[in-house]
Design a protein that fits this description.
The structure is a homotetramer. The first copy, chain A, has helices at 27-46, 51-54, 130-138, and strands at 8-12, 57-66, 77-86, 90-98, 107-119, 124-125. By secondary structure, chain A is α+β, with helices and mostly antiparallel strands. Chain A has a single domain (8-138), classed as Thiol Ester Dehydrase, Chain A. In chain A, strands 1, 2, 3, 4, 5 and 6 form a six-stranded antiparallel beta sheet that branches. In chain A, a hairpin with an 8-residue loop joins strand 4 and strand 5. The longest helix of chain A has 20 residues, at 27-46. Chains in contact: A-B, A-C, A-D, B-C, B-D, C-D. Strand 2 (57-66) of chain A pairs antiparallel with strand 2 (57-66) of chain B.
């Protein structure tokens, strides 16, 4: 019987400039934080075999819901990250942006990104290699419980 | 019989810095361009009655699909913008990011933002006033034809 | 006798996100606005002969003084731009960030950038061609009257 | 006899998006990194007595020279930071942006910021309190050896 896997967590530092004139981390900057989470996380996930990524990955889609206002502070926030769908030529990546302070279980945002494997040399999508699929299956989890997506 | 309404179009200038190390306008910056489109567009939509906005609007959700790579150029791109759902305390705003050059009908991205009316003074959602509803109904249109959203 | 030359003026649009948590255009974003001014201005100055630029220009230095707080508004600000020093392998570019509204002669910032001509192919500085020097001499003007530079 | 003081060092994380279309950390983003260094550093310098800062500090001036191209990497760069001039109503802060990897003594940039103490309540400059002056004198050092500043 499978143990529930622990989610992968990335520490992502904020910048004071992530705040906008309302004094909160700006909604667009949350996507920037998720980009940072991917860059840091993928280096750890695939670092030993960068070829899976180096040939190219395109962002095809983002979906994000904002759940609580986030203020700048020096300690990083925590982004939990897992694969929610693994297809023949891409995958969906889910995220929860969490506080990371002990005892604080605030979820600031939930999001999902559709990534497409791409061959920059030939400008065409490319098939997912078995080793990348295996790595992503190790990192897969539940669909994102979006509340606002229109039914 | 209703004539089909013409969509509202905003000219949104790019910045050279919107491009990332891949030499394309970065996917996160598209959300920044949509923020610009809202700021410019809402000033025109509601400028005569800023009270509808001044009390506060929060971004609750974004969804965006990327359809074609966009390179920096000095002439602005065009963002078409319309309301797709008008609720009791918020509305959905749809966008198409288009080229704007004569004869070029490239759509670079389609997106949708859920906006919630908010009363910053009391930190609570607020009801949509009839005049705002009327203005938005003037600006309403078809749902966004997303291709990637998981069914 | 020379007539005083009129300064070259570039309209540079602001973004709402240029404001920081203090509600003013952030001091770093002023440098971003100057980058925009260079990109727009150089296309006009050298557009007919992009070769002078295409081979590469590096920013070697910035100096900037902030004179008045700037708030976001939809109409662009105006950046006046002129060459202050023309050397064998680069030039200094001066700027004044002005309001641009009729009757408002506020100067928000004064700045100067040292640009070095660079040959990306060989990774070495390159000599200024006579036609670039001639164009810059057409655009040259007074040194920037910095107030804060330490003597 | 005084021992030479060791310079204060701040670890400042890069973001992948700090790179521009040339594939280097953009010159404007260096100023953003220095803002981060101030925010992180001042929390440590003055954290025990935030009142010295909370009342307000304005950036009056920046000067920066770029010495070597910087590429994104996950480990933070190091910003060395010290006071170079302490006046009655403000101070100058010097920086060196260094690599931080063991054995790599590359200096990517040198810079200096003039900061003015400000009373936001009354919108006027304010005098430096003796305890702030004492803290800054602890942190003071040599003038920045700028190479490009015009003589």
């Amino acid at each position: 019987m499978d143990e529930p896997r622990e989610r992968y967590r990335v520490n992502v530092p904020l910048r004071w400039s992530d705040m906008d004139a309302y004094g909160h981390v700006n909604n667009v900057q949350f996507l920037r934080l998720l980009e940072d989470a991917r860059v840091i996380g993928f280096e750890e996930w695939f670092g030993q075999d960068r070829s899976v990524l180096a040939e190219g990955i395109l962002v095809a889609r983002h979906e994000i819901e904002y759940l609580a206002p986030l203020l700048f502070r020096v300690p990083p926030i925590v982004v939990e990250m897992w694969a929610t769908k693994i297809g023949g030529a891409g995958f969906d990546l889910a995220y929860e942006v969490r506080d990371g302070h002990a005892g604080d279980d605030t979820v600031y945002a939930r999001a999902e990104t559709t990534l497409v494997l791409y061959d920059f040399a030939t400008s065409t999508p490319r098939r997912m290699a078995p080793d990348l699929r295996a790595m992503l299956e190790e990192r897969s989890g539940e669909p994102v419980p979006f509340r606002w997506r229109r039914r």
